[in-house]
Amino acid sequence: MANISPFPANQSGDATEVANRLAPPQVPAPQRRARDPRLDFFRGIAMFIILCAHIPGNRWTGWIPARFGFSDATEIFVFCSGMASAVAFGSTFARRGWLIGTARVIFRCWQVYWAHIGLFVFIATTMAALDLYGGFDKSYIGSLNLIPFFENPVPQLVGLMTLAYVPNYFDILPMYLVVLGLMPVMMGLERIGFWAVAAASIGIWLLANPYMAGFGPDGIGLSAEPWSQREWFFNPFGWQLLFFTGFAFMAGWLPAPPVSKQLIGLSAAYLVLLAPFGSWKVFLWVDAAMPALGDLIRPTWAVTSEWREKTDFGLLRYGHFLALAYLAWVAAGEGGKHLIATGHSLAARIWAGLLRIISKVGQQSLAVFVFSMALARLLGLGLDLTNRSVLTTAFFNLLGFALIIGCAYTAAWFKSHPWKTKK
Q1: How many domains does one find in the chain?
Q2: Measured between alpha carbons, how far is 242 from 261 in angstroms, rounded to an integer?
């Protein structure tokens, strides 16, 4: 066969060497980072709590974390979302640069935005249908304070699409959307150093909580409706501090805290001793058991209102959640080893199944959250049609759990692209 190589036959070895030098370097494919079982597990737990908390007239809301301290499931959701974002988006910034990382964040913001709009339209339509055809002795539109929207839809539609109109019950996703939008800024500052990120996050939080700097009660916020002074129930400028705290831990910007008996004791004491000061339910128990102590605690509620405020994410809430998260982190063990069932006993197999289910719900948190917010209103309708007994309440809560589990597995199935040919 004729020699068609551009190099002479006696230089075939040299030709191979030159070709190898000219070929692009073989970059090993990045290894997929293993999912942290703690992240999925606790985010899944938050989804179940959030569903309970949003079912109207639900007896079970008397036992959610918010009844025993300052923080609640929203803190778990935001903190874990920050950790998940460090894995999903932080790695993109690291591998592909700031522009591609920002593009991915913008795409996620686009998804969250339309999830918010779709959720509002679905619930508003459902409530309107119930009022129109249900013949109930209550207004479901009024139960969500949507009467201004239906009475004057033209400006409210514009406000809805521009996030200038954010009714209560629909305020978590807008907050998450704005916090996500801050991520490219923080990733740009991280090039200067972590201190720049920390200074920016703390500075923004202080602008939302000016009482910390002695600047008075009113900080920066976003208007929730044009006809009043009400701001977004979740001020993103306050809540971003928690999001980026979770981000910093997962990204390795902040070191993991040490496991020590002193920190465990301090965290537990913070949660237990401050419970009457942050939970009306615990306070009622203390007040009934020791009225004199109740009289001492009652005046502090007004004094500490700003420090434990939910809207702007007060400092006491931040400390409460960090203490709770630390104890949960210690209990889960390094790498979540204490969560993973060992052995072949019946109890181990049951726990392994529960862990798998809860983690699946945590992995599909956006789909589950949107679904659960719509589902909660329908479960509330079911309770309205019953006597709200212990059994019927348990039935509707457990039905809701089963449905959000089904939503998680369905979302995961669609994300796996089962219609693609597998080689």
Answers
A1: 1
A2: 25
